[in-house]
Each structure stands twice: as C-alpha cells, then as structure tokens.
C-alpha cells in the first residue's frame, strides 16, 4: 500500500515491519503517522484484609497529555489511553470503544490505513501495545512500535517538539479492507476456549497468587500460566528482549507458542496486549492471538466464577 515502508532485519533482531528503532523512525519521520500514547497506572492506597497479608490495591489510570504538550516526537499526535479509546458504556476502566468510535478517533488524528503507523509511549511498551492491539483489531494493516519509546529516542539525542498539530487539519479516512473482531474475547469465549489454548496471565506474581488484587476477589483464572509482562522487556528499559530471549521466556513459562492459540488477560486488557505483541514479534499469526478485554476487572468481580490462588482457593488449578 502507498506509504508502507519495509526493510530486512539481521538475525536475532526484530522485524522492522513490527518494531522500529529510534534511528529508523528519525529517517522515516516524514513518511509515517506517529502516535504518542504515553500513560501511567499509579498505585494509591492498599486496603488490607483481616489476615493482614492479602490486600486490595487502589490504582489511578492516567494519560499523559500534558507531557505530550510539553515535549513529543515531531509530528506526532496524542491518544489518551484512558479516555479516547475506552468505552464509556462498558462500566470498565479500560474496555475498548467499538469500531465506529475507534474509526472516528483515528480519522480526527489524521491516521489512515494507507500509511504506516508508529506508536510510542515512555518506553514501558504497555500503552503502545494496547493501541497496537486496537489498531490491528479494527483493521490497520501496518502498525509498528518504537522500541524503548520516547525515553530511548531522547537518550539517542533525537529532537523533540512542543508544537501540536491542529486537529482540524488532520482529518483522514480510516477505511480498513478487513477487521479482526475475533481477536477480542469475552468471558464466555475464554471459558469455552481455554482448555484448547495457552491462557496467559500477564499480571504480577502477587496478583496471580491472589495476595494483591484490583477487583472484588484475588487469584487467577483456573488453568492460567503466570507470565509477568515485564519479563518480556530488557531490564535497562530500552525495549523488548531480542527474539531468541523472548522465545526462551515463553518456553520457560510453559507456553506452547507454535501449536496452540494464545489468550492473554491482565486487569483490563492492557498488559495482555503487550504479551500478544511479543508473540507477534515471534511471528505467531494474528489469528492465533486473543485478548480477554474484560480481564480480571471483570472475572475477579464475577461471583459465580471461582478464582484460584487466593485464601479461599489455596490449592492447585484443578
């Protein structure tokens, strides 16, 4: 398609059709659409149970638009992950908006399907992966992430700007040839498919074990594999592990990436998108990747579904 750019990649480096370096983006800046989706999840108060061990963790979801207005990659537009792409009617903090609303959001920011999109956040890759998932779900054919985000861009000495583009000049048509609605799963979808799939819990081990919770109950979905999404990233904050190390992390966790589809969940479908993007980097087909959007925010508040790993259900995953 017009505006699409391609390159070959050396062995054990990521495909630049999926994950790009700051130098790649600097050279292609005039040819691509760049989206800033910086955000945060701030931990607030802990509310301990009577046992003094398990606790409910209060959190605050934030989009960092003020940071964008102060300084961003030249030519980028801003998407607030907490409001611009979140359904107001779902009752959840993070469930995605529907296809028509998403199309309008992208068109207002000048994002079309005939131009490569590069997304960045601060470098935790969390919010960039969430927007990648939404764009792929709703049909954009060429979406890439900036490895290491704005932090790595700035460390390498590339310029930033405080000029914001006028939204009225950015209108475009977001008209995908096909969408991928099956990538988004409901709770009933997950419960009927999980025995035939890798089911990955992308949250921390404490949340998986039910010690920390952000819903009514703690624990994890029976049969889920614990794989903290931070294990997929370099410790120095410069982005994703190289392909060989990524593959090893999945294998060590017991994820069969080549012969089973994968369903991922977290608290609200965000960290799970990072796990799915990592599998995408390993060339797992998109039609084998599924995101449980309601995630633990929904499942952990559903009284009829048993969690595993908390004080009520301390035994195994049977």
UniProtKB/TrEMBL annotation:
Q: Which Pfam family, any one of them, does this sequence belong to?
A: Rhodanese
Q: Where is the Rhodanese domain?
A: 28-162, 193-304
CC terms in the record's Gene Ontology section: mitochondrion
Q: Which domain of life is it from?
A: Eukaryota
Q: Which Gene Ontology molecular function entries are recorded, alphabetically?
A: thiosulfate-cyanide sulfurtransferase activity
**Is Repressor among the key words of this record?**
no
- Could you tell me which InterPro entries the record lists for this protein? Rhodanese-like_dom, Rhodanese-like_dom_sf, TST/MPST-like
Gene3D superfamilies, per the entry:
Rhodanese-like domain
- Alphabetical keyword list: Repeat, Transferase
Query: Which PANTHER family does the record match to this protein?
Result: SULFURTRANSFERASE, THIOSULFATE SULFERTANSFERASE
State the name under which the record lists this protein. Answer: Rhodanese domain-containing protein
- The organism is Rhodosorus marinus
């Amino acid at each position: 398609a017009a505006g699409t750019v391609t390159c070959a990649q050396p062995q054990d480096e990521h495909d630049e059709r999926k994950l790009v370096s700051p130098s790649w983006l600097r050279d292609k800046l005039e040819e691509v659409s760049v989206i800033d989706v910086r955000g945060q999840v701030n931990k607030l108060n802990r509310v301990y149970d009577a046992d003094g061990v398990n606790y409910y963790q209060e959190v605050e979801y934030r989009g960092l638009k003020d940071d964008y207005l102060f300084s961003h990659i030249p030519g980028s537009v801003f998407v607030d992950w907490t409001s611009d792409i979140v359904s107001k009617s779902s009752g959840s903090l993070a469930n995605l908006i529907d296809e028509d609303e998403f199309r309008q959001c992208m068109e207002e920011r000048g994002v079309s399907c005939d131009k490569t999109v590069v997304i960045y956040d601060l470098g935790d890759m969390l919010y960039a992966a969430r927007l990648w998932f939404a764009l792929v779900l709703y049909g954009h054919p060429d979406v890439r992430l900036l490895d290491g985000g704005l932090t790595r861009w700035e460390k390498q000495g590339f310029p930033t700007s405080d000029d914001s583009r006028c939204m009225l000049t950015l209108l475009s048509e977001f008209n995908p040839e096909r969408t991928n609605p099956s990538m988004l799963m409901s709770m009933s979808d997950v419960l009927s498919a999980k025995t035939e799939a890798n089911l990955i819990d992308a949250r921390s081990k404490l949340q998986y074990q039910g010690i920390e919770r952000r819903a009514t109950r703690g624990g994890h979905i029976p049969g889920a594999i614990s794989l903290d999404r931070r294990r997929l990233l370099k410790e120095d904050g410069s982005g994703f592990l190289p392909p060989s190390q990524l593959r090893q992390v999945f294998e060590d966790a017991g994820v069969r990436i080549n012969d089973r589809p994968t369903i991922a969940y977290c608290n609200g479908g965000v960290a799970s998108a990072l796990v799915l993007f990592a599998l995408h980097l390993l060339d797992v087909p998109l039609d084998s990747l599924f995101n449980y959007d309601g995630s633990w925010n929904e499942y952990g508040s559903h009284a009829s579904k048993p969690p595993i790993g908390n004080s009520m259900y301390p035994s195994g995953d049977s």
